[in-house]
Amino acid sequence: MPQEIERKFLVTGDYKSQAYAQSHIVQGYISSARGKTVRVRIRDTKGYLTIKGAANASGTSRYEWEKEIPLNEAEDLMKLCEPGIIDKTRYLVRSGNHTFEVDEFYGENAGLVVAEVELSAENEPFEKPDFIGQEVTGDVRYYNSQLMKCPFTTWE
Predict the structure, then answer these.
(1) If DSSP codes are grouped into helix, strand and coil, which group holds residue 10?
(2) Measured over all CA atoms, what is the biggest interatomic distance in the chain, rounded to whole angstroms?
(3) Which residues contact 4 (CB under 8 A, 6 or more apart)?
(4) How far is CA 89 from the centre of its chain?
(5) pLDDT digits (tens, 9 = 90+) for 7-45
(6) What is the total count of domains within the chain?
(7) Cα dihedral 119/85/29/111 (nearest 10)
(8) Which of 22, 80, 108, 125 is the most exposed place for a label (fewest CB within 10 A)?
(9) pLDDT tens by residue, 95-130
(10) Domain enclosing residue 75, as ranges
């Protein structure tokens, strides 16, 4: 089974000057049930359908299946999504042997910037760039499927 192993952090410094690529992402959820989400994503001009399983106890690892789909099909599937859309720009920043995906959110999640690094094992070491702040791996508030339901701007 394909596994996604990642760690997630808040961003506290400049990352844009270190980015080597960026893309615009809009995504919605056909199902955002905890432990089994079905996501539709449009990244620039490509569509994707993703299914994710429940995270392990640490929130670091979970089943993930993703398939590229035609853009027009992704646009049609977006119409079936639950209320609430995630809108963000993703910046890619290299750090040592890893790439950090830094997401700057818009709309109801404006002001939130989160970085993720994908790993091949939960205990794999990695170099943290200087813009990395507090770790929020496993904090469900920072899952995109939860940000759709309880946006960052509504937090106290």
Answers:
(1) strand
(2) 41
(3) 52, 61, 62, 63, 64, 118
(4) 11
(5) 999 999 999 999 999 999 999 999 998 889 999 999 999
(6) 1
(7) 30
(8) 125
(9) 999 999 999 999 999 999 999 999 999 999 999 999
(10) 3-154
CATH number, domain containing residue 117: 2.40.320.10
> Please, where are the H alpha helices in the chain?
71-78, 144-149
15, 29, 142, 143: the catalytic one is 29
Other C-beta atoms closer than 10 Å to the C-beta of 41 total: 22
Task: Tell me if residue 143 is catalytic.
Answer: no
Q: Are 40 and 30 spatial neighbours (Cβ–Cβ below 8 Å)?
A: yes
pLDDT at 69: 98
Q: Which amino acid is at 113?
A: V
| Residue 57, Cβ density class (10 Å: 0-12 exposed, 13-18 middle, ≥19 buried) | exposed
